[in-house]
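Ticket #4471: complex job returned nothing on first submit. Input attached below:
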Amino acid sequence: MEDKIISIIGSYDKDPERLMDILLSIQHEFGCVSEIAVSVIARELGLSEVDVVQTRSFYHFFTVEPVGKYAVYFNNSVVSMMMGMQDVMNEFEQLTGIRIGEKTNDGLVSLHTTACIGMSDQEPAALINNVVFTRLNPDKAKKIFEDMKAGIPVEDMIGDTGDGNNAHPLVRAMVSNNIQKAGPVTLGDYYEGISLKKALQMNPKNIIDEVKASNLRGRGGAGFPTGLKMLFCSLNEGDKYVICNADEGEPGTFKDRVLLTERLPMIFEGMTISAKGIGAKEGILYLRYEYKYLRAYAESVLEELRSKNMLGKNILGTGFDFDIRIQSGAGAYVCGEESALIESSEGKRGEPRNRPPFPVQSGYKHKPTVINNVETFCSIVKIIEVGGLWYSKLGTADSAGTKLLSISGDIPKPGVYEIEWGMTVNEMLEMVEATDVQAVQMSGPSGLCINPTQFDRKIAMEDLACGGSVIVIGKQRDILKDVVLNFMEFFEDESCGSCVTCRSFNMILAKQMKKVVEGHATRNDLKNMKEWSKIIASTSRCGLGQTSSNPITSTLANFPELYEARTVDVAYQSDFDMDKAIQEACEVVGRPARVPHHN
Amino acid sequence: MSEKIKFTIDGKEIEAEKGQLLVEVAAENGIYIPVLCHWKGVHPAGSCRICTVKINGRFMASCTTPVDANMVVESNTPEIQDLRKAIIEMLFVEGNHFCPSCEKSGDCDLQGLGYRYQMMVPRFPYAFERRELEASTPKIFLEKNRCIFCKRCVRMIKDEEGRSYFAFKGRGKHLEINLDTKLAEHMSEENARLAMKICPVGAILRKEVGFETPIGKRKYDHVPIGSEIENLQN
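Support reply: We reran it on our side without changes. The output follows.
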């Protein structure tokens, strides 16, 4: 074992900045990163063991104990639960005789939960040994378990593959693209290499000017003008980097998954054009762990581009050098935050950095770095091909172009829709043929939950901003329990923890929300939740903590009646539930529950 | 290279070198902005958030913000004071702090801030986290119940080869401070002393020495925390 670990470390040149890859390889090889592995890594890299542990323990998919031969990670995010994941998990627990978080005695199966895996259009979904299983139900669970007992490799359990590149021999996934509406930019016609050839003939400044003229704003959610970002970065001397943020983890989003499946050459082309614009020689595609099934295919696309001389040395004979490596994540929502993603790419905990300096000044390896969302890079390709002015005329004055929405939840045709900015929520609901809508969760948990009186609002940066996730919530749903509480528990787990307000207030707010859902909250508790949400929003270091109270504040504002119906009108009530405690105690000792206690 | 700029804190005009950290400029000018994670000369962590101020209407941490011309900084306002008090209260409910039995009492920055901001009862529910005491190494105790995750020890206490004795483990609600017990077997006396000194609370304590400074003669026994800065002006 030690020899194998040493050889893995050697394959990354004993470079501590490649610790993520080292840990990923070891986890893959041994099913865990054990304490013994930690001490070998520490010794070989010249680190202390706690330094290795700090990275290992940050990411969800690294484990200390070996996972089962079949490691099942159920997606427990909102849409998956709405679509019936609880039944699937119950079935697996029944079949295996173990609880979530445990492993069978024979080591065959371990059951885990995980945050959104980017399959909200085909839930309930799970990852089994990194292979995606979609549209699960208890019957399929039975079949899968039979296959596990028969020792069938997980790749052979999937049955039919999905459409498009999901059927590619290097992907072979049962995932469907669900492209419901293509627009003129990211899902429109793509002619490989045309924009790159054009850009290579352009002066770098003109590339940036073209992007500036398009008024393109970053598609990750924050909406910073992309051309300006390139300009600021280009003003610096020396080594520079281009990073593509393919770590979409906002529950309910999956649009980047579709681009990564169907538009990889376009993404890489956009990165190369950006590199030419700012003067970078190296790039990174940071691919979230949950999309590991796309990695081999992505490597093959890079190889193909190199063989066509569209990447590598002296690209298309123009003297310009640029190459891209893929960095896999290991399960951490916060790594979608750009500076956390950079830290992670350097082999560290995914803790967001303080700003200033911004990545354009000091990013990867503390060099100037342009980091953009997948969709942004695709848009750049189209802008260079057709022109910035053309692009700027799409959408609205403040939000140019088109936007990919991942629309899921209680609608007949979940999937990806490329719309022009400026569409109203009503128009969008009509487009997806939604009926009986109670609420729309715009832009995931860090966005807003809106009620029907707001459905005439525009989807645009200047009104209802959206990073990509749109969850339509039907009338039958219990918003506070199914949506808000789920989101708060998500943030409680996904906060990096290093800034005190985000770590602690997410815990406090999740606890308060549980109190509401269980019917123990008072009016005063609601007032407190509102006040405390302000504290976390104003004092947290990064976007996670600044927005994580939005599920509570937006539902308190837009669905006050749901809270009122659940609160009790007394000055104080404890969140301690005597009846429940007695019942639990009875279960533990195996005695039938007594007559409920009365106050 | 240094460029002199002017800006204001609570209306008071201040001259400083552009790019200096706001929290340090304030201290040099006799204005106390509380800190728990900041340590002069060490790369700022920006993790405790207690130094939050409002700059041109936006909330920012003053330990990570370089000063710039024409900044309008609000620090000693009721809004900011209450935010800071809330953070102090939150730290008291998040960990398990029992001042009367703590060796650091009187020298503890968190306790000092509790008094300064007149905390009575925390407004938040107690978390009653179960945390452990790491007592297996010869020089120090690590009392995790009291850790406030300031990262001072993580950033500052290293061995001769630059390796860390302390690091975080886990994330979010599972975050804890972790001590490398193998390295700590050989921790020097100076490192043990420094680790206890920089810890703003009583999470890192030296073994075999207790109450070197008697109660009554400790840093904050007679004057509130921050006095050393505010008295500069007097």
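The first strand of chain A starts at residue 70 and ends at 75. Closing as resolved unless it happens again.
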